[in-house]
Design brief:
This protein is of the alpha/beta class. The protein is built from twelve helices and 17 strands.
Length: 459
């Protein structure tokens, strides 16, 4: 029922130019998320284990994520049972989801209508697993009053204690909502899979709501992995998207670490585009990414291009040498999976001051209060610097600032701690430009060809 409804929504949305992707998530993305969610839980996937678990989707749509999760679990262990919970804002999607759950034998009272951010439909519940694809870049002005009230009055006892993102993008609010639904680690803990765009990775400077949310997640060691998906994977947008995996029960080998996987090359072209969706992840692509995550392995990706331009890929685990380039072709090796310590993503934002000088060039000193006898700062020369958490500020100043501005100092009262996840920085590979001789030869060839064409026209 969910699949049929999604196809109808997509077709009618194409006609009316509405955002069909608000209603559902592509099945290949869901399969990847479900695989990543269950891969570390060998007990529940072992055939014959009579496990009972709960799963929750705060943006349930037609229930696609919940359905695929149940199918995956039952395919591995028919004795297991997954109790499904969800909430959905759109009335039509909510009705289809509820009907789908009824057919599956689920308790339909576990699916509730309404806006998850302003009216939590499961206020006292905690869940074993959670999945969500919240709307990308959608403002939360309509629920601002309720969200701010909960943030200010309840703090960390509520859902939004760490901070609030900018009003133009509420996706991190859904992340905070899911974190509040985690079971305590001593009771088994929880695992979360959520799809976000690139904005939550780095928007907001030190001290901002977004940075404080990232700080809460990383300092509490809740983030297990982020997987970059190929572009053009969703029906209503072609932007870059990322799957975040979070848990409060990391295995020992993952503690204090975050795994970044660049799966943007793991796709195949669809025979027919569906809206903005032109690419899909095949079963082999999903399996390869799942194995990398399950093994917590660092790896590189070797892309082999032959003389005819045909490409193939080989995953290189640590210590493996890249294959030899075919005759007339080449091999390009780029990072694929990286394990990084949580502190790598943190930094101190320091305020660097320079002294105010009078017309004669003399430093102006303060006359009263705490500034008495000290150089006054010149607001026009004020600057900020970002210093990694693992670096000493004095060493940074001596190396990067003082050689160029010997009179500079740090206003320590303005120092802020921030966190960002510059995903692409860890996967960038410098490609040296072609030799100048080759470029010159190509330019001479093109110039000669243009000259010959002009002479032919003149004749």
């Amino acid at each position: 029922m969910g699949l049929v409804f999604e196809e109808l929504i997509r077709k009618f949305a194409e006609i009316s130019n509405e955002t069909a992707g608000e209603h559902f998530t592509p099945r290949d993305v869901i399969k990847l998320m479900v695989n990543l969610l269950f891969i570390e839980d060998s007990d529940i996937l072992t055939p014959g284990t009579p496990a009972v678990r709960t799963i929750y989707d705060p943006t349930a749509g037609t229930g696609g994520m919940l359905s695929v999760a149940a199918e995956h679990l039952l395919a591995h262990n028919p004795a297991a049972r997954l109790t499904m919970f969800g909430q959905e804002l759109n009335d039509e999607s909510y009705a289809i989801c509820k009907a789908d759950m009824l057919i599956k034998g689920q308790d339909v009272r576990n699916i509730v209508p309404g806006n998850t951010l302003s009216e939590d439909g499961h206020p006292t519940q905690k869940f074993d697993y959670m999945l969500s694809n919240p709307p990308f870049g959608v403002e939360w002005k309509k629920v601002e009053k309720e969200v701010r009230r909960e943030h200010e009055q309840k703090g960390f006892a509520g859902r939004f204690g760490p901070g609030l993102p900018r009003i133009s993008d509420g996706s991190l609010l859904f992340l905070l909502h899911l974190l509040s639904k985690m079971r305590p680690a001593q009771e088994g803990g929880s695992r979360i899979g959520i799809v976000l765009n690139g904005s939550p990775l780095f928007t907001g400077g030190a001290g901002s709501g977004e940075s404080e949310i990232r700080r809460h997640v990383l300092e509490n060691d809740l983030l297990e992995a982020i997987v970059a998906l190929p572009t053009d994977m969703f029906f209503n947008t072609g932007i870059a998207t990322y799957v975040w995996i979070l848990t409060n029960r990391k295995p020992p080998q993952r503690r204090g670490l975050v795994q970044l996987i660049d799966a943007s090359a793991f796709w195949q072209k669809m025979r027919r585009s569906l809206g903005s969706k032109r690419k899909e992840m095949g079963e082999e692509d999903i399996a390869a990414v799942t194995r990398l995550f399950g093994d917590a392995a660092e790896a590189d990706l070797a892309t082999i291009t032959d003389a005819a331009g045909k490409t193939s890929r080989v995953i290189l685990r640590a210590g493996e040498a890249p294959p030899a380039a075919p005759e007339g072709g080449r091999v390009k090796v780029a990072p694929l999976s990286r394990l990084l310590r949580n502190e790598v993503f943190g930094y101190r934002q320091i305020t660097v001051e320079r002294p105010l000088r009078d017309e004669a060039g003399r430093i102006v000193l303060g006359q009263k209060g705490k500034q008495k006898g000290k150089p006054l700062p010149d607001p026009a020369l004020r600057d900020t610097e970002s210093v990694p958490l693992d670096q000493d500020i004095a060493d940074y100043m001596a190396r990067e600032v003082l050689p160029h501005a010997p009179d500079a100092w740090v206003d320590e009262e303005k120092t802020r701690i921030g966190y960002e996840i510059p995903f692409n920085r860890f996967f960038y590979v410098f490609e040296p430009p072609r030799p100048l001789e080759a470029i010159d030869a190509e330019l001479r060839e093109v110039t000669a060809r243009i000259k010959a064409m002009l002479e032919g026209l003149a004749a």
